[in-house]
Design goal:
heterodimer, A: 224 residues, mainly alpha, 9 helices, 0% strand, globular, B: 249 residues, 7 helices, 78% helix
């Protein structure tokens, strides 16, 4: 009996994780990138300001955003080098399932990235990020970034200008994710601010948009 | 050999009846645009009274607001063309989306420039990060990315599908971008036409605005038909060159 939908999603996910475990080609680079960006941004901002928390949270999300774009772009290049896309055209799984499998492995990579970035930024920027209240904004922000990245990396990947075209296409679309993630994180760290707009709702709406469009439209990016 | 595989089904020159029809439509739209545009420009300088507070500078409103409305219309047409292309797989839908995105990008540039000129006079600054300016700038960048994706993706059939996906997701993202920057901060004059209490404009100003809206919508239609026709002609030339190349082999 052939494996069902979730069985196939699971085997694709496992294949991506196995490659990462053997080659360690993506997560290590993403983690190093987010840390060195944390170092660099520290020199560009004045952290002696009253708005120190908001500035530091902005630096945190900026670093995560760029690490995500570069890291997921790298996954796509590795897939291309290994002939993954050609292989995937042979399986029977529908494109939505393929999107979910790719999203699953990307989200696991991003979770590792978050779990390093949070303590590093908490220490370097003296931020109380090790707090349960920031879990929800970080989880939703990561989900939205991961879903958008999984959908848009193959979209920009067909071009020879892939590395620079991807951020040009993706960054304007991610404006609400970045606003929502930064504001929700700041609101979680400074609970005194009442009457805030529903930032986590905004993040959830973005995540829903990119998840839904990824599930429905992923097939159009691949079949050739 | 690669050429053979990549070749789409041959595009036949449309029967002359159809060419004539679109050419006639384009000419009619061109004529209507010229007439209404003259009236609109005349009304905005001669008929509409100067604003009590803003004086003559307010007249840019009759240019700026219709452009913004038509820019949104253009991006909606990109959405329609994109959905149409993914659904029907006909190149005409793709050409509609591509043409409308180009025109929308030019219109949005004019919206940003005219808004900036007005802002320098009234606010004393070329730019402010107010929600509507910010959202319009993000909109401009979304469709700049769309234009670059089309220009830089070399496989033509693939480029059409990728552009269609971006045309759909980009348009759905626009209201979310708008809401996010509204929450993020709020200097732009409140809407005066689409207002719960009805239009808050004197009749002469409203009439000038509505004629402007008609003129710019006709201009958009004229440019769209023209651009789609050029794209169709380009596709026919490429197809003919391909057939010639195949014949020589």
């Amino acid at each position: 009996m052939p494996p069902g939908f979730w069985g196939q999603v699971g085997s694709l996910l496992a294949a991506d994780l196995r490659r990462e475990w053997r080659g360690r080609a993506v997560v290590g680079l993403m983690v190093s990138f987010v840390c060195v960006t944390g170092l660099i941004l520290n020199f560009t901002f004045n952290l002696a300001l009253e708005s120190r928390v908001a500035t530091a949270v902005g630096a945190f999300w900026t670093a995560l955003l760029f690490a995500t774009i570069l890291g997921l772009g790298r996954v796509f290049v590795l897939d291309g080098e290994n002939g993954v896309w050609e292989g995937l055209t042979l399986i029977l799984l529908d494109p939505g399932g393929l999107f979910l499998a790719k999203l699953g492995s990307n989200l696991l990579f991003l979770t590792v990235l978050d779990s390093v970035a949070v303590p590093v930024f908490a220490a370097l920027y003296n931020l109380p990020l090790l707090h349960g209240a920031v879990l929800l904004p970080i989880a939703l922000g990561t989900l939205a970034l991961g879903a958008a990245g999984t959908l848009f990396v193959p979209l920009a990947g067909a071009s020879t200008a892939r590395e620079i075209l991807l951020p040009v296409v993706l960054l304007p679309l991610l404006v609400p994710v970045l606003i929502g993630a930064v504001q929700a994180t700041v609101a979680a760290l400074t609970p005194a601010t009442a009457g805030q707009p529903p930032w986590t709702g905004l993040l959830a709406a973005c995540a829903a948009l990119f998840l839904g469009s990824g599930y429905l439209l992923y097939g159009y990016l691949l079949d050739d | 050999m690669i050429l053979l595989e990549a070749a789409p089904p041959p595009v036949r020159t449309p029967p002359n009846g159809r060419t004539d029809r679109t050419a006639r439509l384009q000419r009619a739209l061109g004529g209507a645009t010229a007439i209404t545009m003259l009236i609109a420009v005349g009304m905005s300088f001669l008929y509409a009274p100067p604003d009590l507070v803003q004086g003559q500078a307010q007249r840019i409103f009759y240019f700026h607001v219709p452009l913004a409305w038509v820019a949104y219309l253009a991006f909606f047409v990109v959405l329609v063309g994109s959905v149409g292309y993914l659904w029907r797989k006909q190149d005409g839908w793709d050409r509609l989306a591509a043409a409308s995105a180009e025109i929308g990008l030019v219109l949005t540039s004019l919206v940003l420039i005219s808004g900036s000129l007005w802002g320098k006079t009234i606010w004393g600054t070329w730019w402010s990060w107010d929600p509507r300016l910010t959202a319009t700038l993000v909109l401009w960048f979304i469709y700049l990315g769309y234009a670059m994706l089309r220009a830089l993706t070399t496989a033509p059939e693939r480029a059409k599908r990728l552009a269609a996906v971006l045309g759909i997701v980009g348009f759905i993202d626009v209201p979310i971008v708008h809401q996010s920057v509204v929450w993020w901060r709020s200097l732009h004059p409140a809407p005066v036409v689409l207002n719960a209490a009805g239009p808050q404009l004197p009749g002469s100003m409203l009439a000038t605005l509505l004629v402007g809206l008609l003129a710019y919508t006709l201009l958009y239609g004229f440019l769209l038909v023209w651009r789609v026709r050029i794209a169709g002609a380009e596709a026919r030339v490429i197809d003919r060159q391909r057939q010639t190349a195949l014949g020589e082999e």
